[in-house]
Amino acid sequence: MKHIIIGAGILGASTAYHLAKEGEEVVIIDRKDPGQATQAGAGIVCPWLTNRSNEAWYRLVLEGARYYPSLIKDLELEGETETGYANVGAINIFDTEEKLNKKMEVANKRKEEAPEMGEITKLSSEETKELYPPVSDKYGSVHISGAARVNGEAVCKALLRAAQKNGAVFINGNAQLEAKGSEVKGVLVNGEKVYSDQVIVTNGAWGRELFSSLDLYPKISFEKAQIVHLKLPGADTEHWPVMLPPFNHYMLAFGNGKVVIGATKEKTNQFDTRVTMGAVHQLLNKALKVAPGLADATYVRTKVGFRPFTPGSLPIIGYAPQYDNILVANGLGASGLTSGPYIGSELAKLAIGRKTNLHLPDYEVKNAFQ
Q1: What span, in angstroms and rounded, lies between the C-alpha atoms of 130 and 103?
Q2: Which of 151, 166, 265, 298 is the most buried (most CB within 10 A)?
Q3: How far apart are CA 199 and CA 177, in angstroms?
Q4: pLDDT class of 207 with cuts at 50, 70, 90
């Protein structure tokens, strides 16, 4: 069967890789818009400490975190070793014993169904600072050894290269759906028609635009996320854990002194990729309050990405209404780098008629279409 995948972010790349590994004919189309969430993202693979209570959403990120180690091993077998993925652990910092003990209770409860969390340890302020030197000495932490970091751009490129090694074809261009009756026959891209048995749409924040040619208008919104990159000269940051402060931002480190602070959550309906000083100030102000040691860091840049959301902030996964051969997955939001590779593997199963582990009624596509 021939599949066209529109959108080569983390979700589309994973879907393409898993289909190509099964011997399916795969064409990936992406126009490389600036502001793609995957390209801007630095991912935290640590869903277990979330305060969000939606069970259907939690199941996706739980399985996403569980899936990563085997995926990374598979990619390594394909010769793809540059993924930015590393099991560095995570610390959730708090300034009182009461808060620490409460989070320890949550973590230990979550571990009952997620042994991959690894060791859960309450750390003193001294132990916390030993793991993450810039942090203020007033914070203790809960340490989760099984947590990881991932570089969105790197892992996406690794998936796409692996897909192409298995026969997938990549086209850089703007795809327009070509429909006849209740089926889409393929797409028009760069002035040429490309035919397929099935079209899989995974183009995130740009999904509404694509479907308008079919008089379908999915309720896909997006947030602008700005993410600051710093460099600490001389610091050995390779093994620093992900840091989860007691507010809705994060800090994570890569090698060579690189520290990333994210992310803003800006409601918008414009693809405005400008870096704004208000966003940079917001991120640095909060980061320096909990990690004053970052004051010596050099500002490098700020990346901008648009995170897609669907109604209820719950992803949609399944076939589009009125069309028999359009699969859609969208709305992964801020957790796309955690859940995207896993959802892509399950979407590939759905595309070739295999049983999926997803409970699809929880992610009903029609909920997002007017």
Answers
A1: 21
A2: 151
A3: 9
A4: very high
Residue 326's SS3 state is strand
Q: Judge contact between 231 and 261, C-beta under 8 A.
A: no
Report the predicted TM-score, pTM, of the whole model to 2 decimal places.
0.96
Q: 2-41+153-219+311-368 with 86-149+221-309: one CATH topology?
A: no
pLDDT higher than threshold 90 for residue 125: yes
For 286-312, how does the pLDDT look when each residue is reduced to its tens digit (9 = 90+)? 999 999 999 999 999 999 999 999 999
SS3 301: strand
pLDDT at position 108 is 97
DSSP string, 194-215: EE-SEEEE--GGGHHHHHGGGT
Buried b (16+ CB within 10 A) or exposed e, 235-249: bebeebbbbbbeeeb
Q: Tell whether the model's pLDDT for residue 132 goes beyond 90.
A: yes
CATH architecture of 2-41+153-219+311-368: 3-Layer(bba) Sandwich (3.50)
| Bond into 263 cis (ω within 30) | yes
Q: Which fold has domain 86-149+221-309?
A: D-Amino Acid Oxidase; Chain A, domain 2 (3.30.9)
List the one residue out of 24, 37, 41, 60 whose CA is nearest residue 151.
41
Read off the pLDDT of each residue in 51-68 and give the average, rounded to a whole number. Answer: 95
Distance of CA 275 to the CA centre of its chain: 21
Domain ranges of the chain: 2-41+153-219+311-368, 86-149+221-309
